[in-house]
Amino acid sequence: MRQLIAGNWKMNGISAALADIETISEIAATSAPDADILICPPATLIWRAAQTAAGRIGIGGQDCHPEISGAFTGDISAEMLRDAGATAVIVGHSERRQLHGESNSFVSAKASAAWRAGLLAIICVGETEAERASGDHLGVCKDQLSGSVPDGADSTNTVVAYEPVWAIGTGKTPTMDDIGSMHAHIRRCLTARFGSESNAIRILYGGSVKPTNAREILAVPEVGGALVGGASLKAEEFHRIFSAVPPRG
Ligand code: PEP
C-alpha cells in the first residue's frame, strides 16, 4: 500500500504561502517519494495552490458541506472544491467536531458528498484525553467509524485518519504500541463491515507528527501515512516527514 502524507494547514496561509506549495511540489517531483503527497490549504488558496502544484502533489480541502449548493452562508460544497482543483477533502476533523458540533451522521453526509464530487474523503476519528483515560478509546473510535464512514467505502474513495484529540497540536503522541493497537482495531472494524477488499483503505496517524518522530510512526504496522498539522506549514519540515516513509517491502 502506498502511503499518503497529507498536510492540514488549518486557518493558516495567505498568498505568500504559495511559495511553500511550489517548494514542496518541486521536492516531491525531484525526490519521487514512495508516497502520495497532499496539502490541504485554506479554501481561499485552493485554486492557486492547484495551479502551482500542477499535479506534482495533490491539493485538498479541509471540510465540505453535504449539499451541492444552496443557502448555506460561508459553506463550501465538495463540487466547489473539485472545481477549484481539489482531489481530496478532510471531513470530521476533531476541530470541526468539537468547535462546530459536527455529529457522526453529518460527517458521514460530508463523506458521501465528497464521493459524489469525485473527491477522496479523509475521514477523521479519535478519542479525547478523558476517553483515553477512561479506557474507552477503542469503543469511541469504533462508534465514530460506524457513524462517520458511509456504506460503500473503499480504498479509492476513502482514507481514515486516526487522530487522538489530545495529541493534536500538543507535542504529545501515543506510544508506538498504542498507535499499533488502535490502527489494528480500526482495520478490524473496517474489515468486519466492508470485507477484505477494504484492507487497502489507508489508515493515517495524525497528532504531533514531526520530522523527529515520523520515521518511527510511519513504520508501525497498519499505519498508511500521516495527517500532519503544524509541521506541514514549513516546506523543509514537511519534506523531512515525507522522506521518512519506509520503502515498501
Ligand atoms: C491535525 O490538525 O490534523 C494535526 C494532526 O495537527 P498537528 O500535527 O499540529 O498535531
What key attributes describe this structure?
249 residues; binds phosphoenolpyruvate
Question: What is the topology?
Answer:
Elements: E1 3-8, H1 18-31, E2 35-40, H2 46-53, E3 58-61, H3 78-84, E4 88-91, H4 94-99, H5 104-116, E5 120-125, H6 129-133, H7 137-148, E6 158-162, H8 176-194, E7 202-206, H9 214-218, E8 225-228, H10 235-242
Parallel strand pairs: 1-2, 1-8, 2-3, 3-4, 4-5, 5-6, 6-7, 7-8
Helix pairs in contact: 1-2, 1-10, 5-7, 7-8
The structure holds phosphoenolpyruvate (PEP).
Describe this entry's structure for a reader.
- With 249 residues, the chain is of the alpha/beta class.
- It has helices at 18-31, 46-53, 78-84, 94-99, 104-116, 129-133, 137-148, 176-194, 214-218, 235-242; strands spanning 3-8, 35-40, 58-61, 88-91, 120-125, 158-162, 202-206, 225-228.
- The longest helix has 19 residues, at 176-194.
- The chain starts with a strand and ends in a 7-residue tail after the last helix.
- The model has no long low-confidence stretch (mean pLDDT 97).
- It binds phosphoenolpyruvate (PEP).
- Phosphoenolpyruvate is lined by residues 8, 163, 168-169, 206-209, 227-231.
H/E topology pattern: EHEHEHEHHEHHEHEHEH
> Strand order within the widest sheet?
1-2-3-4-5-6-7-8
Number of continuous helical runs: 10
Summed up, the domain count is 1
- Gross morphology: globular
Biggest sheet: strands, sense, closure? 8 strands, parallel, barrel
Secondary-structure-derived class: alpha/beta
Assign a percent range to the helix content. Answer: 25-40%
CATH superfamily: Aldolase class I
From the N-terminal CA to the C-terminal CA, the straight-line distance is 10 Å
